[in-house]
Design a protein that fits this description.
Layout: E1 2-4, E2 7-10, E3 13-14, H1 15-19, H2 23-43, H3 46-65
Antiparallel strand pairs: 1-2, 2-3
Length: 67
């Protein structure tokens, strides 16, 4: 994960977008990402599954910071 011009980026994902999103939107994105990680793991693509799980962790961190 690198900080680039004040924006949090990971593999081309700009997390500043998610910081401005509603909690409901974040929950939908988290559910989609976790479901996707499970599917990649079933298909045997462990690296892609780990990437999705890491993305979900970042989204959860943003979600919990919105209290």
């Amino acid at each position: 994960m690198a900080v680039l011009l004040g924006a949090i980026k990971r593999k081309g994902i700009n997390y500043n977008f998610y910081k401005n999103a509603s909690k409901d939107y974040l929950l939908g994105e988290i559910a989609h990402t976790e479901r996707s990680a499970r599917e990649f793991r079933k298909l045997g693509d462990i690296q892609e599954a780990k990437d999705r799980e890491e993305h979900a962790k970042m989204l959860w961190n943003i979600y919990y910071s919105k209290k």
